[in-house]
Amino acid sequence: MSVTPDQPRPLAVVTGASSGIGLELASCFAAGGFDLLLTADDATVAVVADRLAGDVAVRHVQADLATADGVRTLVEEVRALGRPVDALALNAGTGQGGPFVETPLDGDLETVRLNVESTVRLAKALVPPMVERGAGRVLVTASTAALMPGPYYATYAASKSFVLSFAEALRHELKDTGVTVTALLPGPTDTEFFERADMEDTRVAHGKKDDPADVARQGFEALMAGKDKVVVRSAQPLSQAAAAKVLPDRAKAAMHATYTKPQDG
Ligand SMILES: NC(=O)c1ccc[n+]([C@@H]2O[C@H](COP(=O)([O-])OP(=O)(O)OC[C@H]3O[C@@H](n4cnc5c(N)ncnc54)[C@H](OP(=O)(O)O)[C@@H]3O)[C@@H](O)[C@H]2O)c1
């Protein structure tokens, strides 16, 4: 989207914008001439907003999107701006690593609430006005973990399968509305994810990872091109990617587990 000086700048709302892929997505939107509404759970998002402000206007909302109140806070802030959302990046996400029989229920439920529930709540509130207006772009951060069962972060992989399926279905429903939905499927990416998910003692956490700036750029370009999805896994061995396409689910689960299983277990 090119913006000329006499046109109002488009607005992008980015969740999980304080670090990792979301921070880099916010930078892509800023470089693309979007004003920004950034959101994350802790106060760092204010620092990020200050850093990105300059040629574009950047606001921030601190909200725990794993709660209905947090989602409501963000939606109210969006509505208070009184301007349409041109791009919505539903990116905030977290995981809970470890054998399911040992993981804390709260960690599993927070994963589901943030990754699944907040995606649905935010889409329900913010997509209908896009459809009414006949324009908008939605980016949903899924994961290559969505493509196969994910032992040792079972609720995380399941949550990403949900958001991928949700994004693809929504894309179909909206195909004649002027609103596009794009799924971003990163492979292992060098962010705070593994530490937060309690997965530091896994093979995937110590393996090669993509740069979050590259992942975000590919997601942003796919979004702006109106593509259905983009899979970014340059750090993943080609043999593994190829095997994932042809193996039965049981074998995919076993292969995935070799990367996600705690090494001390
Ligand atoms: N890193 C990978 O290997 C990888 C691979 C595939 C997909 N992904 C997906 O990429 C997305 C971004 O993750 P990342 O890798 O960039 O990890 P990250 O660096 O940990 O970033 C996560 C972002 O989500 C925010 N967030 C976490 N809990 C929140 C909550 N309860 N309410 C609101 N915001 C919250 C964080 O903000 P606070 O710091 O304020 O909590 C942060 O801005 C996630 O959906 C993740 O599942 C990551």
Automatic annotation (TrEMBL):
UniProt-listed SMART domains: PKS_KR
Source organism of this protein record: Cellulomonas fimi (strain ATCC 484 / DSM 20113 / JCM 1341 / CCUG 24087 / LMG 16345 / NBRC 15513 / NCIMB 8980 / NCTC 7547 / NRS-133)
Protein name: Short-chain dehydrogenase/reductase SDR
Presence of the UniProt keyword Ribosomal protein in the record: no
InterPro entries with a match to the protein in the record: KR_dom, NAD(P)-bd_dom_sf, Sc_DH/Rdtase_CS, SDR_fam
Taxonomic lineage of the native organism: Bacteria, Bacillati, Actinomycetota, Actinomycetes, Micrococcales
Keywords: Oxidoreductase
One Pfam family cited in the UniProt record for this chain: adh_short
Molecular function terms, GO-annotated: oxidoreductase activity
Regions annotated as coiled coil: none
Ketoreductase domain segment(s): 10-191
Family: Belongs to the short-chain dehydrogenases/reductases (SDR) family.
GO cellular component term, pick one: membrane
